[in-house]
Amino acid sequence: MIEGLISFSLRNRFLVLLVAIGLFAWGIYSVRINKIDAIPDLSENQVIVFTEWMGRSPQIMEDQITYPLVTNLQGLPQVKYVRGSSMFGMSFVYVIFNDETDVYWARERVLERLNYATRLLPQGVTPTLGPDGTGVGHILWYTLDAPGLDLGEQRALQDWYIKFGLQNVPGVSEIASFGGFQKQYQVTLNPNKLIYYNLSVPEVIQAVRNNNNEAGGRKFEINDIGYIIKTTGYLKSVEEIENISLKTVNTTPVKVRDVATVQMTGETRLGIFDENGEGEVVGGIVVMRYGENADEVIKAVKKKMDEVAKGLPNGMAFNIMYDRSELIEETISSIKTTLIEEMIVVSLVVIIFLFHWRSAASIIIQIPITIATSFILLNAFGVTSNIMSLTGIALAIGVIVDNGIIMAENSYKNLSHRFAELNPEEKK
Q1: Rounded-to-integer distance, Cα 267 and Cα 52, Å
Q2: How many Cβ atoms are within 10 Å of 47's Cβ, its own excluded?
Q3: Same domain, 20 and 92
Q4: Do 200 and 251 reside in the same domain of the chain?
Q5: Is-above-0.70 flag for pTM?
């Protein structure tokens, strides 16, 4: 078969040349569209199920949330194993699928099973799927440089303005906020006063919920003008919560302020985010979607940051703490320099070793064509241009040259033997 292929190539040199040019052009195009990253993604193909039930201990989370979810998510098609983790107020379930499984197909299967498993959980608890990212999806971290704004105001800007702006960038799966205080109204009950007024905690909670609501009415027309009737009942201040009536005792209403203290404060935190030991900061983590081009996503996020920054308060700016694009550029630049140097050195060695320009040229031409063609396979198998794949290509140059030298020497050897077998008349 090999002899037949060689014979066909020798008889159709122009066709072989066209195929080589076509592969080289296709390879150059593949180089341009190949996804770039600094490191290969070796993380497992997983879907994360996150459940929040604040105020519950890890043991309660394990018994009532994690265990029912783990047992019901087992048995899904193409699942290798299911892991569970419980902590204060939170539960994480990791469903690990086979490597060849499509991640979005896996998310659909998990979501279908969650619709059934949710009925086994406590009332009001709803599990959600984590972002469609990977273990190496954290491509950019940033903090907010906001002199004059407290941590609560910074976190509000991050959650209600910056986060929504950056999430619209193509390829971004999630903007995870960290640091600062999430503002909330806190009602601190006095147990002695609850006993005195014969009230229970659920009654206070239900009263606050009932008074934080809006109701619709109807539409009616007066003088050909339509009016919409509605009742506005959302709580907007500490005073409104304090004035909520809980019950009436001898025609005197018992209000929330009679049994509790109401204040605006931050949500209870389990940790802080500190920058270089200089104090707390607020920021976010950009999580890249599965299978995206890290270099392009980072550039798009930075461009979007410039647009978002126009709407920030005066003096407020982004401070990038971690940027993988710097590592990507250094990695690609280092490998590119190594490839060029290696191609030059190998070409000189081939020319000196063979000392025949036609043979050397046929071998040297194989190097760029083979390197360009390898990117066609990288795209076909979904492999990014990273330090591992590019280093493998650099190491393979020696193999490419070795094969060319062996074939050239073998050809000259066979030609010399053939020439020696000719009679003097044929040699002339």
Answers
A1: 14
A2: 25
A3: no
A4: yes
A5: yes
Nearest CA among 274, 317, 36, 2 for reference residue 149: 317
**β 128-129/46-52 pair status:** antiparallel
Q: What is the CATH number of the domain that holds 50?
A: 3.30.70.1430
Element (H, E) at 168: none
pLDDT in tens, 156-215: 899 999 999 999 999 999 999 988 888 888 999 999 999 999 999 999 999 998 888 887
Q: Identify the CATH number of the domain in which residue 388 sits.
A: 1.20.1640.10
- Residue type at 260 in one-letter notation: A
49 lies in which domain range?
Answer: 44-133
Strands 128-129 and 183-189, sheet pairing: unpaired
Within-domain flag for 28? yes
Return the ∠ at Cα 45 (arms to 40 and 48), rounded to 5°. 120
Strand pairing report for 90-97 and 79-87: antiparallel
- Taking alpha carbons only, the member of 11, 17, 109, 125 closest to residue 68 is 125
Phi, psi angles (nearest 5°) of residue 282: -120, 140
